[in-house]
Amino acid sequence: MDVFSVFEEKPSESLDNNAKRINDSSESNAKKMKIDSSATETTKQTADEQIPETEKSKHQPIVADSVEVVATREYKEEDQTLLQLKHQVRHDVALPPDYNYKPIAEHIPSTDPARTYPFTLDPFQQMSVNAIERNESVLVSAHTSAGKTVVAEYAIAQSLRNKQRVIYTSPIKALSNQKYRELLATFGDVGLMTGDITINPDASCLVMTTEILRSMLYRGSEVMREVAWVVFDEIHYMRDKERGVVWEETIILLPDSVRYVFLSATIPNAMEFAQWICEIHEQPCHVVYTNYRPTPLQHYLFPEGGDGINLVVDEKGDFREESFHKAMRSIGDKDQEAGAGSKNKRKQVKGDTTDIYRIIKMIMMKNFNPVIVFSFSKRECETLALKMSKLDFNTPEEHDMVSKVFRNAIDQLAPADQQLQQIQSIYPLLKRGIGVHHSGLLPILKEVIELLFQEGLLKVLFATETFSIGLNMPAKTVVFTSVRKFDGKQMRWVSGGEYIQMSGRAGRRGLDDRGIVIMMINEQMEPAVAKGMVLGVADRLDSAFHLGYNMILNLLRVEGISPEYMLQRCFFQFQNTQKVPQLEEERRELLKQAESMEIALETEVKDYWLTRSKIADYGKQISKIMLHPGNSLKFLVPGRIVHAVYTNADGEELDFGWGIITKLEKRKRPQFSNSSSNWNDHQSYIAEVLVNVASTTPTHLVRRFDPTLVPGVLPANADSGSSDKDSKAEILPFTLESITEISSLRTEAPGPNANKKMKKKMSMNLKKIMSKFKGKLPLLNPVKDMGIKDSDFLQILKKIDLLENKCAESEIINNPELPALYAEYSKKNALITKAESLRQRSQEVKTILQMDELKSRKRVLRKLAFTTTDDVVELKGRVACEISSGDELLLTELIFNGTFSNLTPEQIVAVLSCFVFDERVNNKNSAMHPQLKEPFQAVQAMAKQIARVCNECNLPVVEAEYLEQFKPELMDVVFQWSRGATFAQLCKMTDVFEGSLIRIFRRLEELLRQMSSAASSMGNEELAQKMDKGLELIQRDLVNAASLYL
């Protein structure tokens, strides 16, 4: 029995069709077409030289037709009075030069529309549909649930009516499956292609992942000749560090004849993206933006252990300062009560659970359900759900409905799999209306929970951040168990973009007058942090483009394009060339300021300044030698007083003065990045130093263990005599490059996790020391104290002595105005130096970025015989083109050296698991099966060879870190599965979540298919059959369970 048949008795309701809409009263603010003649310049280059200005001007996109509409919508207040809320709808278009364009306001809608709706389209929907009717691409930037799907549906309907093909792409398979089911119900002629599943591939509308579309383009699929429109859902995924590059590749490779619908969450630089589309495909691209929310949001704070919730942002978007400070005072009072005792700390932890229990009870009493409770930990989601297990939010009839849906879904599993602990433990919660949703759940459980939530059978859902992505499953209320998260490096405040994405799940269109967002907080938060989170702008759409060997090899095979072509046209390059006009304008302004400065005795002052500059340069050399890890580590201990000066990306020095070291930590060298090639010994350690920063520095900008200081982290302006009002103590990370002086003094050191009170105490101690020595602290003597006897070092000391003597003999040394003249000349020189730096940066961004990396990667391919010296792809390269789900170089080398040919299918799947597993785990059974040790050693040995070749070709790779990418922790688990072990047995072998195991197996399936194709491409059918057999061995039971959406 199909799981959806349970719902057949209930009419299938569409939120759009049944929403109670109030007619929009719209007033046009600007309907005149405006062409910005000073549109930002863009630059195109060939691989070796820039295109002449006259040729460039032919391709510059023009920003035109700026139209802004303010629409009003009425909502009922709690006292039934009407509240009018306004929202913006903004339109712009990027046009190719000389394009015959007609303003969007003058568009006459078709008398025979491709699709009609039983409601009046919102202004942003109508504008977008108008663009599609004109056969022009459009980017729709709007909040979740605003109604962007209407625009995509219209493009599909128009394509089907015109007997053209249309492709709908989504970022992940789960979303593709859901979208396929929706579009199939709406249009009928729909197919699905996700790699492991292909349904009706000849359909006029094909739903697929972006990776599948990219693969079709590289292979020159005949389907692409018939495609008129491509819909990119969730295009803001393009900023994803790992997979974002797939979107860029695909968009660049698509033919100019294709038109696009880009659906996105709100992005502040949407117009920049549209200009890029216009430039690379020489076609108009409209941008339709709206800040419209179908249901306005109210944002509340719930202080830990507090008496209730505090409204901090109302539905009009107004920040309520008094309510915010009331919540903060409540936290302050609790902190004083708690003190520092361990007994009270234990109470505080217990209070966390009590608080969420109270909030859920309050939500249910006020009928604010359904509610999504966001947590940033899978374990915490489950723990909190279990704490609610005594509550029951469902009626007896709803119990029965949940049981039917659950049983219909689970019955497709083998009896043994139905008894898995995860399945058995979640069922009682679901019956009570309580659900859990995170990536560690079995896919079938996630889908059951999604269906139950959509049908209103779950009243409380504990979910991780991934639930906010893509799925159209709003609730009335959203709760954040914390507004701080660990991002892989440090604990930090949730960003404005992340908050917008998750809080956007609050409020169901047509069902709720308001959406409610509740933030649980247990620490002081500055108003600027709260405003930046709740009222802040969404995250920018910035390119995450990076080169890969699979990309390079595929581009070398495609006639008419090249890797240089891809670099030249990528969004990364476009965004950089957009900076040129601004850089040049800043440079002109700096030079103008420098020329206006007249300095008395400038020639003499300049000579003196140059001599002192040489002394400073030699001083830096001295510091560099002193601070080399081999000389300094034994002195850089907690409590040591050091002088820290940070140099930012613009070459500006930020002097943080003297501070106290709290911790010294070794860093990992970054791989395949710009910083990797500039790496030196001084960057291999981070000293965390307690320093004084400006009192205006927001605490949330201070990042642990990341030596790239965020703009806004500034040193205190005053010296040791400054008042506490001018500065505050913070612990900042500095590499050894930023330590300029080491004092011979040590003092008590605050711990690395010191609270505000402790930091302030240590800062006061430092001020007392500074006062005692009148600001001139005694320094470690590099020769006597540190024992540095290097001859070059001693030679530099002699040079400094000579230059100091020269300064002492200078005629201007006795001039009383020298300090003022010196300072004035320093300012002038700083302006000139910065202007020169801007000139160099301008030149850099005009050239194709990542070209040096491309040259190095090409050298690697030649040295490994993947290509010839003329960049012709050899057999090895053609094999590597088939592999995109694992390290293509290493896997290809292992194929050619016979490693896989000597293994059984069971051993092969175990070895390949190293290439698709990327989590950190602690296996209960850490011993590797004897049959797997030698194959894994072969993987490591070949990886070392590739790392060596990369370094020889000037592509910096740290061997140890490269080897760490191939994780053996699941080899034995996969090996036993391929030999017939049950899933329950696997769960006892590892602490990896069940859902994560399934995801790994499905990645492994994809890799096995690619490896089979790779073996076939070189004529090794015996190896291809082994790969196919390995695929057959792992495709069973839970791993092979079909999606409920299909």
UniProtKB/TrEMBL annotation:
It comes from the Eukaryota. GO terms for molecular function: ATP binding; hydrolase activity; RNA binding; RNA helicase activity. Residues 7-35 have a biased composition (Basic and acidic residues). Belongs to the helicase family. SKI2 subfamily. Residues 355-559 form the Helicase C-terminal domain. Residues 1-60, 330-349 are annotated as: Disordered. Residues 129-285 form the Helicase ATP-binding domain. GO terms for biological process: maturation of 5.8S rRNA; RNA catabolic process. This is ATP-dependent RNA helicase. The keyword Nucleus applies. One of its GO terms (cellular component) is nucleus. CDD domains: DEXHc_Mtr4-like, SF2_C_Ski2. Keywords: ATP-binding, Helicase, Hydrolase, Nucleotide-binding, Nucleus. It is found in: Nucleus.
